[in-house]
Amino acid sequence: MSHSVLNRREVSFQLFEVLDTDKLTRRPQFSEHSRETFEATLDTAEKLATDLFAPHNMQADKHEPTFDGEKVSMIPEVKAAFDAFAQAGFIRGRLSFEEGGMQLPETVMTSAMGYFTAANPATTGYPFLTMAAANLIRTFASDELKERFLEPMLNGRFSGTMALTEPHAGSSLADIRSNATPKEDGTYSIKGSKLYISGGEHELTDNIVHLVLAKIKGAPAGVKGISLFIVPKKRVDSSGQVGEFNGVSLAGLIHKLGYRGTTSTALSFGDDDECIGYLVGEPHQGLRYMFQMMNEARLGVGFGSVVIGYQGYQYSLQYAKERTQGRLPSAADPAEPPVAIVEHTDVKRMLLAQKSYVEGGYALCMYGASLIDDQHTMENESDRQKASLLLDLLTPVIKAWPSEYCTKANDLAIQVLGGAGYTREYPVEQYWRDNRLNPIHEGTNGIQALDLLGRKVWLNNGQGLMLLQEEIAKDIKASGEMTKTMATQLENTLTVVNRTFMVLADAMKIRGPDVTLANASCFLNLFGHTIVAWMWLRMANVAADKLAQAQGSDVAFYQGKLQAARYFYHWELPLTERDARLLQNLDETCLSMQPEWF
Length: 598
Known about the structure:
Elements: H1 8-18, H2 35-53, H3 57-62, E1 66-67, E2 72-73, H4 76-87, H5 106-119, H6 121-140, H7 143-154, E3 158-163, E4 179-182, E5 188-198, E6 207-216, E7 226-232, E8 234-236, E9 242-245, E10 248-253, E11 264-269, E12 276-279, H8 286-322, H9 345-377, H10 381-417, H11 428-435, H12 445-454, H13 459-477, H14 484-510, H15 513-516, H16 520-547, H17 553-572, H18 576-584
Parallel strand pairs: 3-6, 4-6
Antiparallel strand pairs: 1-2, 4-5, 5-11, 5-12, 6-7, 7-12, 8-9, 10-11
Helix pairs in contact: 1-9, 2-4, 2-5, 4-6, 5-6, 5-8, 5-9, 6-7, 6-8, 8-9, 8-10, 8-11, 9-10, 9-16, 9-17, 10-11, 10-12, 10-13, 10-16, 12-16, 13-14, 14-16, 14-18, 16-17, 16-18
């Protein structure tokens, strides 16, 4: 049984009907583009993903990279896919024409990347990290460093990583011990170790450019003393020639539950030989620079969760339509032929839940991508600032909500297949394993909850929250007869969110952050579900408007949108009442639990 990498009808709906991406061609930045060039980009991505990425997804999972003490080996299909991706120009797709790029909107690039991640998330990890690392160097590094490292990364000759985590510190970057000693020639000697570095060692490219967080000796304590360094696997001279190894050693490969085709590495810097690093930007500003790559990665993790969840949904849906078993309660006569399991109500429930999670998450991530386009290309500075405020506020949600609920979708896909879903002969178990990393990736979802409630909602005196409510109010006002009940329910939920926020604001002043943030995960769930309910109202409004004139398969498509929206409002949104109650009561059950009581 086979299925398409992604449902092109869904991609087009999100891109051109919900977001109306065509209108971007009226902005100077994208004026040389058209609907046709956007579609051609998606065509290329779909073909490459289908032909070169999807076929070795299961193979890369079964035959993960190996390390013989000298080099890392992996199946050859990974390099063929990476090289084709680079040659097609996707690594530099967002860049301007003057920089050799395709000057594509973020919404179109995100849609294109969805095909690759859906087809093979592990192989896509290598170009994804390279793109994000190259963008950081492009933004913050000196011209000399750009000349030395950027172009080879953009053409796929070098790859990139982000090296943050250390064995003793985990997500607590304030406690990193990697250090940098200045040298007379302006470079630095780097010494330290990093753990869980994706793509940290391989033979896919001529060189690997590590972006390493370290502290210059004598730097301030904590995060204020962190600097950022370019540390290549092999040294690169001023003319761009790749030379000898640079003291970056692979201590070992880490074997993961999923994402097995992406090397996860433990690296040591400066143990076997001198390791030379190049300071990016100003000293002690490294975490600020790295946050650009981290936030890009967080948005990417959210969307990656969506499309992996979508893969499970598509496969389990097709399976449910083809697999016959049992009879309906109203027709239990064993003489009657069995029905396809998609006819059973509980299977419909599981499929509706998956659909509501993955398509709601898809809309959320695409909305985030549209904010990036607005942030960079809106003509009015005030509008650009508004987009930035909204994106800052929503980034923790875009990362965490899909990685939580689209992984649940993969779990439900296994359940739809029954015993077959738990076997390695079917792909749904791998989809779940691959997606299970994403609630941990780029800051655990608990950290995203603390970021949302501890920082993001308060920034700029809560302007982002006020802007968000204004945007939601527009779609509530735009609701028609078929979506009015949803709009009213969303309006009521917003009232609950506001009431909860006011309780927490008072608690922060009176009882301090420990009590206020004790149940931050509840706030993330309440807030995230509210945002996804908004996404479903947006989609339902479009579907209701289109349904009257729809023909052929579009009738069922729009009906499916409306039914999934009803599911989310009837089954999912009411679950936030528990979160609101715990938050408003400042529940201390978890906070007051003592370690010795476990």
